[in-house]
Specification:
It is a single chain. The protein is an alpha/beta fold and 329 residues long. Among the domains are: 87 residues, Arc Repressor Mutant, subunit A, CATH 1.10.10; 128 residues, D-Maltodextrin-Binding Protein, domain 2. Helices cover 37% and strands 22% of the residues. The strands form four sheets. It has a six-stranded mixed sheet. Strands 4-3-5-15-6 form a five-stranded mixed sheet. It has a three-stranded antiparallel sheet with strand order 10-9-14, with no helix packed on it. A hairpin with a 2-residue loop joins β9 and β10. The radius of gyration is 24 Å and the shape is elongated. The two termini are 46 Å apart.
Length: 329
């Protein structure tokens, strides 16, 4: 029978595509990892990897085996955690993926308090804004912002995500202030994460606005910096720009509109009968830290940071008529 340790080695090689990287994770040499994989293939009577000089890729058989191995390892972890929760404090390696800006502003400054409370937990944190398949990549938890797609994962809302339409005073001085959504269509609206639609809630309920601008990026931080520089108008989160709004570096336009309330900060994890204690305590820590009204929204009166609008509709000069330019992080 195949040992659990061999399954663990196989799964790590499959995820990293590299025996050296898998070996570093487990404290094993590449030679030992290679030997264990070869022994596993011999025992199964099947080739699990296609080998090249630079990397490894799963064969069709290997991909099917990997899917089942992930489930087996998850069940083993659940079994160990069941005993652990009954006998010890939360402990072990907790692998988490988080978005770039939010983790820098609102998670990293509080990690010291979390680790002081749970000294037997070790964090393996991966930062990035791209979508991650947390089951395939072996993550225990993901922090995600925005509206979630339907999936087999479990999601818990840990904070609200208030997004407002805003621009720098310099942009508004040059191009005028939009008075309604029709007027906004003539402005240079910068979209993050290839958003084709801004789902907004306003006086008449939910509406969809199609932003048009000369820059689009998969990086929210990049769009934020462009809005601050006066390049265009953006739909930005108060957790990201609250302080800039307070200082006057940005002004809210169309304050009666904001992103749909379904957008939020979520903790997302695999659907399991037994949630590992280490996952549960981090979710609870963050949920209690942010609360029903996150600290970044307290004392932020959006009406006081809104741009004064002209009494009648002005015809705004369209800027940036060129097509979208893809930007990289």
């Amino acid at each position: 029978m195949t040992a659990i340790s061999d399954l663990d080695i196989f799964a790590r090689v499959a995820r990293t595509g590299n025996m050296s990287a898998a070996g570093r994770e487990m404290g094993l040499s590449p030679a030992v990892v290679s030997k264990r994989i070869s022994q596993l293939e011999d025992r199964l009577g099947a080739r699990l990897f296609q080998r090249t000089t630079r990397h490894l890729t799963l064969t069709e058989t290997g991909a099917g085996y990997f899917k089942r191995v992930v489930d087996i390892l998850s069940l083993c972890e659940e079994a160990e955690d069941f005993v652990s929760r009954r006998n010890t404090k939360p402990r072990g390696l907790l692998k988490v993926t988080m978005p770039t800006a939010f983790s820098r502003l609102h998670i990293a400054p509080n990690i010291d308090s979390f680790l002081a409370r749970y000294p037997e937990i070790e964090l393996d944190v991966h930062i990035g804004d791209a979508f991650v398949d947390i089951i395939r990549e072996g993550f225990d938890l993901a922090i995600r912002i925005g509206e979630l797609e339907d999936s087999s994962l479990v999601a818990r809302r840990i904070a609200s995500d208030t997004r407002v339409v805003c621009a720098a005073p310099a942009y508004l001085d040059r191009h005028g202030t939009p008075v309604d959504l029709v007027d906004l269509e003539a402005h240079n609206c910068l979209a993050a994460d290839t958003a084709e639609v801004w789902r907004l809630e306003g006086p008449t309920g939910e509406t969809q606005f199609h932003p048009h601008g000369n820059v689009r990026s998969d990086s929210g931080e990049f769009i934020r910096e462009l809005v601050l520089a006066g390049v265009g108008i953006g739909l930005l989160s108060t957790w990201d720009v609250g302080q800039v709004l307070r200082s006057g570096g940005l002004r809210v336009v169309l304050p009666e509109y904001r992103a749909a309330s379904s957008a939020a900060v979520h903790a997302v994890y695999p659907s399991r009968e037994f949630m590992p204690a280490k996952v549960n305590v981090l979710i609870e820590f963050l949920a209690n830290l942010y609360g029903s009204e996150p600290y970044w929204d307290k004392d932020l009166d959006l009406s006081k940071v809104a741009q004064v609008r002209p009494a009648a509709r002005q015809i705004s000069r369209r800027v940036g008529k060129a097509g979208p330019v893809a930007a990289t992080r």
